[in-house]
Specification:
- The protein is α+β, with helices and mostly antiparallel strands.
- The chain has one domain (6-130): TT1751-like domain (TATA-Binding Protein).
- Helix content is 42%, strand content 23%.
- The protein contains 5 helices and 5 strands.
- The chain has helices at 15-28, 39-45, 61-70, 99-105, 113-131; strands spanning 6-10, 32-38, 53-59, 80-86, 92-97.
- It has a 5-stranded antiparallel β-sheet.
- A hairpin with a 5-residue loop joins β4 (80-86) and β5.
- It starts with 5 loop residues before the first strand and ends in a 6-residue tail after the last helix.
Length: 137
């Protein structure tokens, strides 16, 4: 069972390609990639093993700022985080928290509900673009 608000996609690409495609897709949509957190590298530096696991922190001020103005506590969950990892079966996965779930968590009622819907659509479009392997005819 998945955690509440957790949206997961199976990628048709390996970890490295999925992560590269994610960065390109986010930037291609005008989003800023604020940070990349390589959890596997951090684990290795502590002498621990962890499979490929990276979080990209992405966002667009014009979408997130209205939400933070409405409810400042939502800033703990913004900018958005997108997780890419390899599971125990060797599948590469991509996941993120549903922006609607984030807003509900903070009891946010943005002045412009379309901004929240746009965040949802953008994340879903990015995830589909990143994970779906095109099969040549």
């Amino acid at each position: 069972m998945e955690p509440d608000g957790f949206i997961k996609w199976v990628s048709g690409y390996d970890f490295t390609e999925t992560l590269l495609r994610l960065r390109q897709a986010a930037e291609g949509r005008g989003m800023t990639v604020f940070a990349s957190i390589d959890h596997a590298a951090a684990a290795a530096s502590a002498g621990l093993a962890l499979g490929p696991t990276t979080v990209l922190i992405v966002g667009a001020a014009e979408k997130g700022t209205p939400l933070m103005n409405a409810v400042p506590s939502i800033a703990i969950d913004l900018p958005l985080r997108v997780l890419v990892w390899v599971d125990e079966n060797g599948s590469t996965l991509l996941a993120y928290n549903d922006p609607g779930w984030i807003a509900a968590r903070h009891h946010a009622r943005p002045a412009d509900p379309e901004a929240l819907a746009a965040m949802r659509r953008a994340l879903a479009a990015i995830a589909e673009q990143v994970t779906k392997r095109e099969v040549p005819p």
